[in-house]
Design brief:
This protein is α/β, with parallel strands linked by helices and about 525 residues long. The chain contains 20 helices and 11 strands. The chain has a 7-stranded mixed beta sheet with strand order 7-6-5-8-9-11-10, sandwiched between helices. Strands 1-2-3-4 form a 4-stranded antiparallel beta sheet, sandwiched between helices. About 45% of the residues are buried.
Length: about 525
């Protein structure tokens, strides 16, 4: 006799009605062979495209926001948020079965073209919203839509690759691993191969066309094909956008995407009516020359020469960190043809442009030797000593290289100076307001290495509140400093010195934009 207690403890061994059951007689077989390879190709391609859009996107907004930690943080954060939201929505769309993956990929392809047609948006966003909010808004509008669609791909593929709870974990792991492998490949291929090989509009259009191809593949594998005329018209439209976006403006002589920067050469009429040729790196004017004479048009070069005039005869050797179009070393070579000048420039493409379009290529300068290397690496590997070391890498307020303004970097520079040698630097900063934060911290850093230094104003008549060129002169021996009567920047040291372990340069420079950026 079985009592109530015995019945309540009995075990039901049949299938639970609320869980799917693996039934080999009723369930369709799991994808195998060519079909499963197609699913993996979709996963790989979508992962590849995400990183291409991310890296190309950071380059696209670099002329406006630079390539410091601030825009990179904005782009990476927005990309990750879009991926997360896309994955969330993709799982629900896949379960609902109303929107096929092929059309999700078509949407990704179309939205991948947004950066081509909206390339002017970052300028508007920065003017209206400011530096950090503008970078975030640009990333959300230009890059998030395509990445959101691509984030939905993996849930669709996991569903398509799974027919039983017995192996759902393994199937999800396989698809996710392939998508991640695509992202890894996209990182290396975009950064090392595609960016230098194609203009940004062309690269983004290629990405969009590739997504259209994935949409067609998805339709063939999972059903609900995209009509061929839709794919064809979209591909033609992407090609037209790429062609239009890759055309140089009339005043642009050259435009290159290098491993290090977005570089262009322009020729325009200056404020005094003279034609000026400029080298731009990530939107910043790093070299400026008058076309008729080849003389530098940046005032800080002439100011540097005048500041050195009392001691120029003892300067027999010079190291320039940051060459750009070599306008500064060419000017010093013209002043002192017998001076030995070594230049460290990380980007060989920039040197090629200097030879083709600037004074360095029009005349012979046998005393100038260019080395293509990172400045810190070169200093560490070299045992040369110089009478003058000039740091000229502040070509753009937005991309100040923090690795060259720390105590450790300045110590390495000082180690390469002769006992009576001088260290000079071209700096960019306002002289009033919150934008002073960087120059104050940099002076606190200089105090740790150089007993004597003075910061001069390259353009003494400039409003102190505007961002302007400043010329630093420093020495290990105070007696070696040039005795000049030149307006000084009335600023002092404040805060902790910058070090390799802690150098929040991007944050300090961002204060210029929060206060409202104005240029001299």
């Amino acid at each position: 006799m079985v009592g109530p207690r015995s019945r309540s403890c009995s075990t039901y061994s049949g299938p639970r009605p609320d869980l799917p059951v693996s039934d080999p007689t009723s369930a369709s077989p799991r994808p195998t062979g060519i079909r499963r390879a197609g699913l993996f190709l979709l996963a790989f391609g979508s992962g590849f495209a995400v990183l291409t859009i991310e890296i190309a996107g950071a380059r696209l907004i670099a002329p406006v926001f630079g390539l410091s930690a601030v825009p990179w943080t904005a782009v990476i954060g927005v990309i990750l948020a879009a991926l997360a939201l896309g994955s969330h929505l993709g799982g629900r769309l896949a379960d609902a079965g109303k929107v096929p993956l092929s059309w999700v990929l078509v949407a990704a392809a179309i939205s991948a073209a947004l950066p081509i047609v909206g390339s002017g948006l970052p300028w508007v966003a920065r003017d209206l919203l400011g530096f950090v909010p503008g970078a975030l808004a640009s990333a959300v509008i230009l890059f998030a839509p395509a990445v959101l669609c691509l984030g939905a791909v993996v849930p669709y593929l996991v569903q398509a690759d799974t027919r039983s709870l017995d192996n759902v974990g393994r199937r999800a792991g396989d698809v996710s691993a392939v998508a991640t492998a695509g992202s890894i490949a996209g990182t290396f291929m975009t950064g090392f191969v595609l960016l230098p090989a194609f203009p940004l509009p062309v690269l983004l259009a290629i990405t969009a066309v590739a997504l259209l191809a994935l949409a067609a593949l998805s339709g063939a594998i999972l059903g609900q094909r995209v009509p061929p005329h839709v794919v064809g018209l979209a591909a033609i439209g992407m090609s037209a956008l790429a062609y239009a976006g890759s055309q140089r403006p009339p005043d642009t002589l050259a435009r290159e995407q290098t491993l290090y920067a977005s570089v262009s050469v322009t020729e325009r009429v200056g404020r005094d009516g003279r034609i000026v040729r400029a080298l731009w790196q990530n939107g910043g004017s790093s070299s400026l020359e008058f076309l008729d004479t080849g003389d530098p048009a940046h005032e800080y070069v002439d100011a540097s020469g005048l500041l050195l005039e009392p001691v120029i005869e003892r300067v027999q050797s010079m190291l320039v960190l940051g060459g750009a179009a070599l306008s500064l070393p060419v000017a010093f070579s013209r002043w002192r043809p017998d001076m030995r000048i070594d230049v460290v420039e990380i980007d060989p493409v920039v040197t090629e442009l200097a030879e083709r379009y600037f004074a360095y290529g029009r005349d012979d300068y046998p005393n100038i030797r260019v080395v293509h290397d990172d400045a810190r690496v070169h200093l560490r590997n070299s045992d040369e000593r110089y009478d003058l070391i000039y740091l000229d890498v502040f070509d753009h307020l937005l991309t100040v290289p923090w690795t060259l303004v720390t105590v450790e970097a300045l110590t390495e520079i000082a180690d390469h100076l002769e006992p009576d040698g001088l260290f000079m630097a071209n700096l960019l900063s306002p002289l009033a307001g919150p934008g002073l934060a960087f120059i104050e911290r940099f002076q606190a850093t200089l105090q740790q290495v150089f007993p004597a230094f003075v910061i001069y104003r390259a353009t003494p008549d400039s409003d102190p509140g505007v961002t302007q060129n400043l010329v630093l002169v420093a020495a290990l021996d105070a007696q070696a400093m040039p005795d000049v009567d030149w307006p000084r920047a009335r600023t002092g040291a404040a805060g902790r010195p910058l070090t390799d372990a802690w150098a929040p340069v991007e944050y300090l420079q961002a204060k210029v934009f929060w206060a409202g950026l104005t240029w001299d």
